[in-house]
């Protein structure tokens, strides 16, 4: 193919970072500035700060009462009270008032008997310096208040002022210029047309730079034009501390970044053994770091964390701390390659005593998997994969505390789960519902392995014609219950206006179908209906094409990438498609009896029963929810 | 005493908060506002956010290459290559380009052999939908992107834009008005005179409100004038969501706050069973929360955390997460009272496998103890105290990671420790030196109990006339080493110009002395010198008055609260006092051999040897540092 530079290196992550840091060592220097203390929250001190004055500045009364001369109180007792004269033997002091020579002690107001305006009686002698805060008790003039490279907290601001400091030298926040590039990208304010992509990465980078202590300027999108990009980057290098270019970092026909950077400076690394995130460029131009990040959002995010963040650290003086690492049991085998270090997004849940990590979608384009993830499981380059049940290290970005208060829900997907998660967040702050969608059967297997609290299921038992309970009875020996969910209509999701005039399963031979994944309740129902109609899967074009949720299959139909799919009414309605009813099914939650009393599960049951949820389900359409939240104990002997 | 309202209640903490929350329940409501997504980092969503469009919006090439029609590639193999014609059998696509009907698969550029401008050769058939990202793979239109009450992260901003969202409803940041009051307080820009106090609490509150997600307006200090304060607070209640008044929250002659708030609204709680922090006021006026906080900085901080933060949570929608709690062994007995819940600031260090908590100064005025602390140990109201060696729960505000990389140094104080801590922070980011000052002997006892890594000591053995090593030999059985520190001059710190004309120890009978605490090396030296001079402690006025550091005793002399103290030259110099040399001593570090190879200890030794430290010591004066960082193994048999 013409104009392609196919060659991308595969430098190991650590080596790439070492090369880059070495190149930046003498170029990248922290800058400093003096700012008012009241504006210094979260900033990093340049140097040690020493107190300019003591606190307290004088010997001060630590109580409301009277300041006395210890000598003159000697001998006072209940039997031999002493009378003291104002402004001669004592003065009245409030907390914080100075206690000056000859006064050397304070008697609390509670222990003083007032006789008249000028005289008081005391029943006990004072000991020297009682209830007096000595000068410098808190801060001694000249003492070090804060060390270098210290991140300023609210309490630090308090002591800086108390120590007489009003301005402070701090590390200047580095300024990063962010350039979104690409002819196909458009600003979010414009409605996208086919072939156009809403530019969102640069706004994510902007927020990342900000949260790591830098300042970010995001430039408007530049089309894939060699000279325009070169000029813009070159100009930015004169006034910014670093430049981020996105995307064009790979080796395609329109990937200019690497050529531009070779012209403007030196490219130290192009291509790293990391997945996702291989096509990254680490360069230096005009003495400043320039990093080219790939276009896929997950790749861009992971490369930012691995390569931009360490460069920001050199400029901000922040240490960012190590990641929050926990050990978890892996719920599903992960295969990787010796070609790269791989970052797999995982959901993490605590079930019983066990922390469980469940891998999410691994595609570089799956930004929502980052939103849904609780952390990363990192597979080293020298590792070919990890087996289910093995213990893995997870870099968490949710706190363990939150994870412990989360209902782990693994199984079949329904809109109900999103709505319930939302209502839980709103009505039970600090309690969460986390759901992973691997189909009814996959969920029950996960529950058997102790990796979930509840499993949303809609499994039709062909023999009895009953839903869910027969499967749970067969699969579990421990006491189980069923939390009733909803009845919902399943059917064929078809193009708006039903142009192929499909009437039911029998008509599917003439069209492009998209199926749900193996183990999904909807697929079980579809297979059952196929059998009833006397049809064979081989007669359906697209029977093997799989998508993981109702919304995903509906989207494929809406995008005219398929003519029909099996799914729920609500998904068809959400995508403004037509719907042909095939049958009604029961969507419930399998739960071990031992989890029923957990406060998190109780919150979930309350949400299922709430009229707020019912209203939202009625809006979506296709649901019956009279029984939602009812509990059936699967076997009589376990009933309460 | 006149005009005092001595009565302060002692409501238990939980009860006080429950009373207050109940009163605020129907008054305090979150407000909402719509803001652009790019400004939403760290804000809390009002409601669930649903995608307005799918991502990708179309079936898109996942690789650079050619889009083909699967049907037309059937049969291609190495033996039977197929020739494809441009714009008929294939089109060229870059990653992200649309793949529209009739095209239904992409072949990677690497697998395509170019023949000429219009034709290519392929050696393998394509499978349907290979290297195609289906429409909605990442985000399906109508799908829930974020739930309610979700704190927006950088990745969320990315998916919001990808999902077609450009504005978002978030919780409005509550506005707090902060009123510093008091006739004695001055702005930090003014140089304080005796009796005046630099106002610093309000700036700390301002930073706390900010870091908890609110907006703060700090008003200039108001003198203790009933009507002025009342008018200012009343006006603020019209435009702010809450008001904080500091101080005047107690029951002294000039503590107006409670009266003002009774007039403006209702005081629900005045006085809580918490230490420090008893004099707190929880009130409601004009339907808004008003909180009166005490003047001592530590009390104010603890009351803010216990009472202001929960009110802010009602307005911000933040959960703030639970505190970072760890279990540690207590190094020193703590006595408390059944009268209150007590917050004791602690240093926390990891020594071997053990996390150790060492209590710091407990005074309400000791703001520096908050700066130095790693967390709080909370003693419940129903507990009279905790014995040394017991396990306690510590609410940490430094990360465990940082604590694990900290050299725990317990013993005698010297300026050297502050300078070394500063240089470590600067040259070894992520490694820290934490020092607690309890004197040489106290330090050695802590080391014996396994609560420190190194102990700064300067203990004169009267029998041999040698420093340090005899003590270590006597006290330890395990292999020990001595890291050499400095030789330093000890002497009498006296008033500038030496007005009492003191010449040495013998002259101390005529003046007010201040001593160092029991177990301090300086006190051992002082006692030794007293004995040499044939004097008895009872002859010295102030022998029993103790302060914990060289700087603290120097400050007392500088404040004319004492005439003389024993200490080091550097402290006298820092406070611009006169100094009468008494002798030279050796200030070194005792360390178990097993800790010598820890990277943190190695960093400390490097710092001791550094010319930067030596320069700073020379500036301070009174030090010899030729041997600093040298290591002596205490017993020959342990020598390397």
Present the secondary structure layout.
Two copies of one chain form a homodimer.
Chain A: H1 13-24, E1 32-36, E2 49-50, E3 60-61, E4 65-68, H2 70-73, E5 82-85, E6 90-93, E7 105-108, E8 112-114, E9 119-122, E10 132-133, E11 144-146, H3 154-162, E12 167-171, E13 175-180, E14 185-186, E15 197-198, H4 201-211, E16 215-218, H5 226-239, E17 242-246, H6 257-264, E18 265-270, E19 274-275, E20 281-285, E21 288-293, H7 297-316, E22 324-330, E23 334-335, E24 341-351, E25 354-359, H8 367-372, E26 375-379, E27 385-386, E28 391-396, H9 400-404, E29 406-411, H10 415-427, E30 432-437, H11 439-448, E31 455-457, H12 469-475, E32 480-494, E33 513-516, H13 521-532, E34 546-547, H14 550-558, E35 564-568, H15 569-574, E36 578-592, H16 599-609, H17 611-620, E37 623-624, E38 631-633
Parallel strand pairs in A: 13-16, 13-17, 14-15, 17-21, 19-24, 22-25, 29-30, 33-34, 33-35
Antiparallel strand pairs in A: 1-12, 2-11, 3-10, 4-6, 4-7, 5-9, 8-9, 18-20, 20-21, 22-28, 23-27, 24-25, 24-26, 26-28, 31-36, 32-35, 32-36, 32-37, 32-38
Pathway (chains A, B): Cofactor biosynthesis; molybdopterin biosynthesis
Enzyme class (chains A, B): transferase
Family (chains A, B): Belongs to the MoeA family.
């Amino acid at each position: 193919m013409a104009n392609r530079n196919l060659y991308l290196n595969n430098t190991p992550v650590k080596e790439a970072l070492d090369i880059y840091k070495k190149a930046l060592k003498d170029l990248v220097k922290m800058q400093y500035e003096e700012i008012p203390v009241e504006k210094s929250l979260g900033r990093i001190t340049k140097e040690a700060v020493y107190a300019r004055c003591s606190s307290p500045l004088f010997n001060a009364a630590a109580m409301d009462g009277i300041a006395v001369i210890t000598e003159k109180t000697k001998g006072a007792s209940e039997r031999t009270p002493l009378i003291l004269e104002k402004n001669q033997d004592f003065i009245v002091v409030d907390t914080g008032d100075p206690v000056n020579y000859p006064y050397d002690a304070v008697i609390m107001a509670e222990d003083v008997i007032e006789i008249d305006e000028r005289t008081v009686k005391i029943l006990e002698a004072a000991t020297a310096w009682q209830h007096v805060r000595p000068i410098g008790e808190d801060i001694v003039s000249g003492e070090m208040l804060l060390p270098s490279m210290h991140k300023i907290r609210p309490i630090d601001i308090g002591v800086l002022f108390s120590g007489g400091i009003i301005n402070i030298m701090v590390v200047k926040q580095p300024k990063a210029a962010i350039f979104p590039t690409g002819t196909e990208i458009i600003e979010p304010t414009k409605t996208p047309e086919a072939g156009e992509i809403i530019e969102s990465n640069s706004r994510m980078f902007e927020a990342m730079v900000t949260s790591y202590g830098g300042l970010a300027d995001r430039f408007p999108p530049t089309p894939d034009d060699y000279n325009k990009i070169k000029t813009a980057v070159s100009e930015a290098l004169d006034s910014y501390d670093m430049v981020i270019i996105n995307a064009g970092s790979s080796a395609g026909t329109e990937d200019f970044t690497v050529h531009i950077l070779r012209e403007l400076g030196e490219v130290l690394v192009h291509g790293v053994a990391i997945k996702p995130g291989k096509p990254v460029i680490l360069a230096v131009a005009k003495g400043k770091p320039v990093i080219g990040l790939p276009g896929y959002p997950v790749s861009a995010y992971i490369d930012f964390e691995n390569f931009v963040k360490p460069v920001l650290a050199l400029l901000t003086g922040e240490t960012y701390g190590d990641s929050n690492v926990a050990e978890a049991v892996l719920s599903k085998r992960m295969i990787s390659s010796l070609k790269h270090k791989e970052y797999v997004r995982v959901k993490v849940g605590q079930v019983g005593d066990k922390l469980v990590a469940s891998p999410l979608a691994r595609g570089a384009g799956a930004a929502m998997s980052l939103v849904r993830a609780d952390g990363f499981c990192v597979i080293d380059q020298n590792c070919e994969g990890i087996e289910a049940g093995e213990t893995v290290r997870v870099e968490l970005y949710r706190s363990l505390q939150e994870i412990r208060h989360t209902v782990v829900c693994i199984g079949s997907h329904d809109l109900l789960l999103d709505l319930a998660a939302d209502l839980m967040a709103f009505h039970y702050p600090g309690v969460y519902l986390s759901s992973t969608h691997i189909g009814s059967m996959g969920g029950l297997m996960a529950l058997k392995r102790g990796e979930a609290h509840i499993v949303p299921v809609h499994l039709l038992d062909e023999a009895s014609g009953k839903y869910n309970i027969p499967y749970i009875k067969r699969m579990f020996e421990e006491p189980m219950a069923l939390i009733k969910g909803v009845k919902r209509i399943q059917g064929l999701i078809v193009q708006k206006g039903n142009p192929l005039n499909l009437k039911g399963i029998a008509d599917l031979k003439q069209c492009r179908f998209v199926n749900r994944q193996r183990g999904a309740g909807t697929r079980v129902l579809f297979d059952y209906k196929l059998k009833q109609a006397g049809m064979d899967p081989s007669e359906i074009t697209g029977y093997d094409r799989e998508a993981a949720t109702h919304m995903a299959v509906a989207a494929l139909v809406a995008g005219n990438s398929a003519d029909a799919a099996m799914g729920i009414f609500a998904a068809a309605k959400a995508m403004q498609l037509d719907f042909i009813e095939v049958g009604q099914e029961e969507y419930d939650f399998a739960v071990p009896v031992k989890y029923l009393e957990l406060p998190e599960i109780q919150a979930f049951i309350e949400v299922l029963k709430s009229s707020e949820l019912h209203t939202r389900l009625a809006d979506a359409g296709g649901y019956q929810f009279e029984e939602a939240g009812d509990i059936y104990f699967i076997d009589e002997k376990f009933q309460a």
